[in-house]
Amino acid sequence: MRDWLIGFALTAVAACCAQPNIVVLLADDQGWGDLGYHGHPTIRTPALDSLAHDGAHFERFYVQPVCAPTRAEFLTGRQAPRTGVIDVSEGAERLALREHTIADVFRAAGYATGCFGKWHNGSQHPYHPNTRGFDEFYGFTSGHWGSYFDATMDHNGELVTGSGYLADDITDHTLAFMAAQTEAGRPFLAYLAFNTPHAPMQVPDANWNDWADRDIPAEHRYSAREEREHTRAALAMVENLDANAGRVLAELERLGIADNTIVVYFTDNGPNGWRWNGDLKGRKASTDEGGVRSPLFVRWPGHIPPRTTVTPLASAVDLLPTLAELAAVDLHPPLPLDGASYAAVLTGTGDAPAPRPVFTSWRGAVSVRTQRFMLDAKGNLYDLAADIRQTEVVTDQHPAVAARLQQVVAAWREDIAATAAPAIPAIPVGHPAAAVTYLPARDAVLHGGLKRSNQYPNDSYVLNWRSTVDKLTWDIEVIEPDRFAVTIHYTARTPGAMLELTMNDAKSSGRIPTAWDPLETGMEHDRVPRAESYVKDFRAFSLGEIDLHRGPGKLTLTAPNFPGETALDFKRISLRRVN
């Protein structure tokens, strides 16, 4: 009996003193108001709400107006424009290589690191998650995906076919990762980056049908602009997300590690529709409250008291330093952080960091917040302490405050201009960590009469290849020279088109061997008409091999001759090392 008690005590001490695991749940296009905890009258989000009940919620937590910049701030603890992430596609989403990520930090401390879902901070190595500190990656690297059922996924740099609904699939992989690391006795950082409720509005029947007889809030600030079926789909997607969050929490209990795991939940921007959002002003892509105010819930049983409320302003840049301090992990940032740690506030052992302004920006629009005031992108001052919904401009009542905040914004712009990452770099090819480099249509420059299948490049393809002067180019940088096997992913009504891929004096060429012209798909799963591209089942064929030498250059794909009206519809090139 005495030996058993000693063993039990040692086990308890080890559990108490072990490095805590970290699980970060990030929603995509979920609004602040899409939660029961924030007063939504009909949505059911018990798992996410429980994080606030059992841990802490931040009253005023801010992210950026769109996806990629918020993710960059979480990853680095630095304001997005400094990191090179200034937009959502065509290279402007790539996280500068000088940046140190949260995965780098925790892996250096002995953690296993995994990212599951939407990455959106660069595709090719060394921008790929596996070369940004994550041991394991399963998801997609672009801004949105065209199909949420049995989707094409990236698993550690190789394309595979997913299983079932995408949000469920990435959760399955997260659970497997947590179980494997727990069995190995290794602490882990698991970043579960959901793709929902971002469009296209696809959701399993069970979640959709749950909303058949439920009311959507009809009276709100933007009710005249609301598309109610879009809202219904979004809320159903949030409930699916909540169910998957519940699966994560249940697995932590099953593994016996719930008390030694910090769970964080937030969203990447405001809602993707004019739905009820606490009557906050604006939505996604706006620097007003509705576009950038996000929930933030943090749970760590035994360390963060239940129902803790954090009132000081915080933002996505604060997550890295906060989690590092909670886990007693050294940061050693190679670049100055913009964020500060809220660990002492969460655990009740100290005060909040010194107050500082919080900036939100996108495409030239900048707003700034203090604990009381907000200066919006048009220069209007609001007293958010009294008017969180931004209903009354108070510039005339507080002219000195408005003038001071205008100076703060001007100084911030100067600082960003002086410290921002360089212009969008060339696409790297042949990185030593990559067996294959994918060059998708979204990264290509289109010439001649070529068109994208959609205005949003993320999961688009190239069509209208009707002339021999049409071509695609990629500005690339060959990291390590090698011979590469070239594969083209295509559809074509007529076989026989000659394709040539060239760079400097290197060339590979071949003819499309077979016709392959499937219909677009995706609409069969859409709950409302989409704005994004539909998808196709693209076929692969070998274009031979090409020798690429180290250095920069322009990779060019042409169709010198073809028998039909069009040469092909193009999805991607893959360049796989031969040696």
From TrEMBL:
PROSITE patterns to which the protein is assigned, alphabetical: PROKAR_LIPOPROTEIN, SULFATASE_1
GO molecular function terms listed in the Swiss-Prot or TrEMBL record: arylsulfatase activity; metal ion binding
Keywords: Calcium, Hydrolase, Metal-binding
One Pfam family here: Sulfatase
Superkingdom in the source lineage: Bacteria
Annotated ranges, domain Sulfatase N-terminal: 20-327
Family to which the UniProt record says this protein belongs: Belongs to the sulfatase family.
Protein name: Arylsulfatase
Organism: Synoicihabitans lomoniglobus
Lineage: Bacteria, Pseudomonadati, Verrucomicrobiota, Opitutia, Opitutales
